[in-house]
From TrEMBL:
<keyword id="KW-0238">DNA-binding</keyword>
<dbReference type="Pfam" id="PF00440">
    <property type="entry name" value="TetR_N"/>
</dbReference>
<feature type="domain" description="HTH tetR-type">
    <location>
        <begin position="13"/>
        <end position="73"/>
    </location>
</feature>
<protein>
    <submittedName>
        <fullName>TetR/AcrR family transcriptional regulator</fullName>
    </submittedName>
</protein>
<dbReference type="InterPro" id="IPR001647">
    <property type="entry name" value="HTH_TetR"/>
</dbReference>
<dbReference type="Pfam" id="PF17938">
    <property type="entry name" value="TetR_C_29"/>
</dbReference>
<dbReference type="InterPro" id="IPR009057">
    <property type="entry name" value="Homeodomain-like_sf"/>
</dbReference>
<feature type="DNA-binding region" description="H-T-H motif">
    <location>
        <begin position="36"/>
        <end position="55"/>
    </location>
</feature>
<dbReference type="InterPro" id="IPR036271">
    <property type="entry name" value="Tet_transcr_reg_TetR-rel_C_sf"/>
</dbReference>
<dbReference type="InterPro" id="IPR050109">
    <property type="entry name" value="HTH-type_TetR-like_transc_reg"/>
</dbReference>
<dbReference type="InterPro" id="IPR041474">
    <property type="entry name" value="NicS_C"/>
</dbReference>
Length: 211
Protein backbone atom coordinates (compact mmCIF):
# COMPACT_ATOMS: atom_id res chain seq x y z
CA UNK A 1 0.00 0.00 0.00
CA UNK A 2 2.84 2.39 0.83
CA UNK A 3 4.40 1.93 -2.61
CA UNK A 4 1.01 2.41 -4.26
CA UNK A 5 0.41 5.64 -2.39
CA UNK A 6 3.90 6.88 -3.20
CA UNK A 7 3.34 6.13 -6.88
CA UNK A 8 0.06 8.03 -6.85
CA UNK A 9 1.68 10.95 -5.09
CA UNK A 10 4.08 11.26 -8.00
CA UNK A 11 1.25 10.99 -10.55
CA UNK A 12 -1.41 13.46 -9.46
CA UNK A 13 -2.90 13.85 -12.95
CA UNK A 14 -3.45 10.11 -13.32
CA UNK A 15 -4.88 9.88 -9.81
CA UNK A 16 -7.31 12.67 -10.55
CA UNK A 17 -8.27 11.05 -13.87
CA UNK A 18 -8.89 7.68 -12.18
CA UNK A 19 -11.08 9.30 -9.53
CA UNK A 20 -13.06 11.20 -12.16
CA UNK A 21 -13.61 8.06 -14.23
CA UNK A 22 -14.87 6.13 -11.21
CA UNK A 23 -17.03 9.06 -10.12
CA UNK A 24 -18.50 9.45 -13.59
CA UNK A 25 -19.65 5.83 -13.57
CA UNK A 26 -21.03 6.05 -10.02
CA UNK A 27 -22.89 9.34 -10.53
CA UNK A 28 -24.25 8.20 -13.88
CA UNK A 29 -25.60 5.05 -12.27
CA UNK A 30 -26.94 6.40 -8.98
CA UNK A 31 -27.06 10.18 -9.23
CA UNK A 32 -25.63 12.58 -6.69
CA UNK A 33 -27.77 11.41 -3.80
CA UNK A 34 -27.18 7.70 -4.32
CA UNK A 35 -23.46 7.80 -5.14
CA UNK A 36 -21.04 6.84 -2.39
CA UNK A 37 -17.54 8.20 -1.99
CA UNK A 38 -16.41 4.83 -0.59
CA UNK A 39 -17.48 3.11 -3.82
CA UNK A 40 -15.72 5.74 -5.92
CA UNK A 41 -12.57 5.33 -3.85
CA UNK A 42 -12.58 1.55 -4.25
CA UNK A 43 -13.23 1.72 -8.00
CA UNK A 44 -10.51 4.31 -8.57
CA UNK A 45 -7.90 2.58 -6.44
CA UNK A 46 -7.59 5.74 -4.39
CA UNK A 47 -8.98 6.41 -0.93
CA UNK A 48 -11.44 8.89 0.56
CA UNK A 49 -8.68 11.12 1.86
CA UNK A 50 -7.24 11.50 -1.64
CA UNK A 51 -10.68 12.29 -3.06
CA UNK A 52 -11.21 15.01 -0.48
CA UNK A 53 -7.70 16.30 -1.17
CA UNK A 54 -8.26 16.61 -4.92
CA UNK A 55 -11.91 17.64 -4.97
CA UNK A 56 -13.00 18.69 -1.49
CA UNK A 57 -16.05 16.43 -1.19
CA UNK A 58 -18.82 14.62 -3.04
CA UNK A 59 -20.60 17.79 -4.19
CA UNK A 60 -17.41 19.24 -5.63
CA UNK A 61 -16.56 15.92 -7.25
CA UNK A 62 -19.98 15.90 -8.90
CA UNK A 63 -19.31 19.42 -10.18
CA UNK A 64 -16.02 18.24 -11.70
CA UNK A 65 -17.71 15.28 -13.39
CA UNK A 66 -20.44 17.47 -14.87
CA UNK A 67 -17.86 19.96 -16.09
CA UNK A 68 -15.82 17.21 -17.70
CA UNK A 69 -18.91 15.90 -19.50
CA UNK A 70 -19.75 19.27 -21.03
CA UNK A 71 -16.12 20.02 -21.87
CA UNK A 72 -15.99 16.70 -23.70
CA UNK A 73 -18.84 17.44 -26.07
CA UNK A 74 -17.71 21.01 -26.71
CA UNK A 75 -14.13 19.87 -27.35
CA UNK A 76 -15.33 17.28 -29.85
CA UNK A 77 -17.27 19.93 -31.76
CA UNK A 78 -14.28 22.27 -31.90
CA UNK A 79 -12.22 19.52 -33.54
CA UNK A 80 -14.62 18.99 -36.43
CA UNK A 81 -13.25 21.85 -38.51
CA UNK A 82 -16.73 23.29 -39.06
CA UNK A 83 -15.42 26.67 -40.14
CA UNK A 84 -13.62 25.06 -43.09
CA UNK A 85 -16.73 23.22 -44.33
CA UNK A 86 -19.57 24.48 -46.46
CA UNK A 87 -22.49 25.63 -44.30
CA UNK A 88 -24.58 22.61 -45.26
CA UNK A 89 -21.77 20.15 -44.56
CA UNK A 90 -20.98 21.89 -41.28
CA UNK A 91 -24.53 21.53 -39.93
CA UNK A 92 -24.64 17.94 -41.15
CA UNK A 93 -21.38 17.18 -39.35
CA UNK A 94 -22.57 18.89 -36.17
CA UNK A 95 -25.82 16.92 -36.00
CA UNK A 96 -23.96 13.65 -36.58
CA UNK A 97 -21.25 14.48 -34.02
CA UNK A 98 -23.80 15.43 -31.36
CA UNK A 99 -25.71 12.19 -31.89
CA UNK A 100 -22.53 10.12 -31.89
CA UNK A 101 -21.29 11.75 -28.70
CA UNK A 102 -24.50 10.72 -26.95
CA UNK A 103 -24.10 7.15 -28.18
CA UNK A 104 -20.41 6.95 -27.29
CA UNK A 105 -20.92 8.56 -23.88
CA UNK A 106 -24.26 7.26 -22.54
CA UNK A 107 -23.39 8.52 -19.07
CA UNK A 108 -23.59 12.08 -20.41
CA UNK A 109 -27.37 11.86 -20.61
CA UNK A 110 -27.85 10.56 -17.08
CA UNK A 111 -25.36 13.07 -15.69
CA UNK A 112 -27.15 15.98 -17.35
CA UNK A 113 -30.48 14.67 -16.07
CA UNK A 114 -29.01 14.49 -12.58
CA UNK A 115 -27.67 18.04 -12.86
CA UNK A 116 -31.12 19.24 -13.90
CA UNK A 117 -32.66 17.40 -10.96
CA UNK A 118 -30.57 19.70 -8.77
CA UNK A 119 -31.61 22.75 -10.82
CA UNK A 120 -28.14 23.15 -12.36
CA UNK A 121 -26.67 24.58 -9.16
CA UNK A 122 -23.48 22.58 -9.74
CA UNK A 123 -22.68 24.48 -12.95
CA UNK A 124 -24.33 27.83 -12.17
CA UNK A 125 -21.05 29.53 -11.32
CA UNK A 126 -18.89 27.74 -13.85
CA UNK A 127 -17.43 30.45 -16.08
CA UNK A 128 -15.51 27.96 -18.22
CA UNK A 129 -18.68 26.17 -19.33
CA UNK A 130 -20.41 29.45 -20.12
CA UNK A 131 -17.41 30.51 -22.17
CA UNK A 132 -17.41 27.21 -24.06
CA UNK A 133 -21.15 27.44 -24.67
CA UNK A 134 -20.83 31.00 -25.93
CA UNK A 135 -18.11 29.90 -28.36
CA UNK A 136 -20.33 27.04 -29.54
CA UNK A 137 -23.28 29.33 -30.21
CA UNK A 138 -21.02 31.76 -32.03
CA UNK A 139 -19.70 28.95 -34.20
CA UNK A 140 -23.24 27.91 -35.14
CA UNK A 141 -24.12 31.57 -35.75
CA UNK A 142 -21.17 31.78 -38.13
CA UNK A 143 -22.39 28.75 -40.05
CA UNK A 144 -25.85 30.30 -40.37
CA UNK A 145 -24.41 33.61 -41.52
CA UNK A 146 -22.33 31.91 -44.19
CA UNK A 147 -25.36 29.96 -45.32
CA UNK A 148 -27.38 33.17 -45.53
CA UNK A 149 -24.67 34.93 -47.51
CA UNK A 150 -24.65 32.05 -50.00
CA UNK A 151 -28.46 32.16 -50.16
CA UNK A 152 -28.72 28.56 -49.04
CA UNK A 153 -30.14 29.19 -45.56
CA UNK A 154 -33.22 31.14 -44.56
CA UNK A 155 -32.68 34.52 -42.94
CA UNK A 156 -33.14 35.23 -39.25
CA UNK A 157 -32.64 31.76 -37.78
CA UNK A 158 -31.85 32.05 -34.07
CA UNK A 159 -28.54 30.22 -33.42
CA UNK A 160 -29.41 29.61 -29.77
CA UNK A 161 -32.69 27.94 -30.70
CA UNK A 162 -30.96 25.89 -33.35
CA UNK A 163 -28.34 24.71 -30.82
CA UNK A 164 -31.12 23.68 -28.44
CA UNK A 165 -32.94 21.83 -31.21
CA UNK A 166 -29.83 19.92 -32.32
CA UNK A 167 -29.27 18.81 -28.74
CA UNK A 168 -32.91 18.03 -28.00
CA UNK A 169 -33.81 15.87 -30.99
CA UNK A 170 -31.14 13.35 -30.06
CA UNK A 171 -31.22 13.75 -26.28
CA UNK A 172 -34.96 13.20 -25.88
CA UNK A 173 -34.91 10.07 -28.04
CA UNK A 174 -32.15 8.45 -26.02
CA UNK A 175 -33.20 9.54 -22.55
CA UNK A 176 -36.70 8.14 -23.22
CA UNK A 177 -35.56 5.03 -25.03
CA UNK A 178 -37.01 2.61 -22.45
CA UNK A 179 -40.48 4.14 -22.08
CA UNK A 180 -40.52 4.98 -25.78
CA UNK A 181 -39.67 1.43 -26.71
CA UNK A 182 -42.63 0.13 -24.70
CA UNK A 183 -45.13 2.76 -25.87
CA UNK A 184 -44.15 2.82 -29.55
CA UNK A 185 -43.51 -0.91 -29.71
CA UNK A 186 -40.00 -1.13 -31.13
CA UNK A 187 -36.42 -1.28 -29.87
CA UNK A 188 -35.13 2.29 -29.90
CA UNK A 189 -31.54 1.07 -29.70
CA UNK A 190 -31.47 -1.40 -32.57
CA UNK A 191 -29.04 -0.58 -35.35
CA UNK A 192 -31.86 0.08 -37.81
CA UNK A 193 -33.77 2.32 -35.38
CA UNK A 194 -30.67 4.38 -34.56
CA UNK A 195 -29.86 4.86 -38.25
CA UNK A 196 -33.43 5.97 -38.99
CA UNK A 197 -33.38 8.37 -36.06
CA UNK A 198 -30.13 9.99 -37.15
CA UNK A 199 -31.49 10.47 -40.65
CA UNK A 200 -34.66 12.00 -39.21
CA UNK A 201 -32.57 14.36 -37.08
CA UNK A 202 -30.59 15.42 -40.14
CA UNK A 203 -33.74 15.94 -42.22
CA UNK A 204 -35.34 17.96 -39.42
CA UNK A 205 -32.41 20.35 -39.00
CA UNK A 206 -31.81 20.84 -42.69
CA UNK A 207 -35.48 21.55 -43.40
CA UNK A 208 -35.37 24.16 -40.64
CA UNK A 209 -32.54 26.08 -42.27
CA UNK A 210 -32.59 25.49 -46.02
CA UNK A 211 -34.25 28.01 -48.33
Amino acid sequence: MGEKMAFRARNPEQTRADILAAARAEFAKLGLAGARVDTIADASGANKRMIYHYFGGKEQLFEAVIEEAYVGIRAGESELGLDEMTPTDALHALVVATWQYYLDNPEFITLVNSANLHQARHIAGNKQLRKLQKAYVERVAGILQRGEAQRKFRKGIDPVQLCITIAAIGFYYLTNRHTGGVLFGFNFMSRDALAKRLQFNLDTVMRLVLV
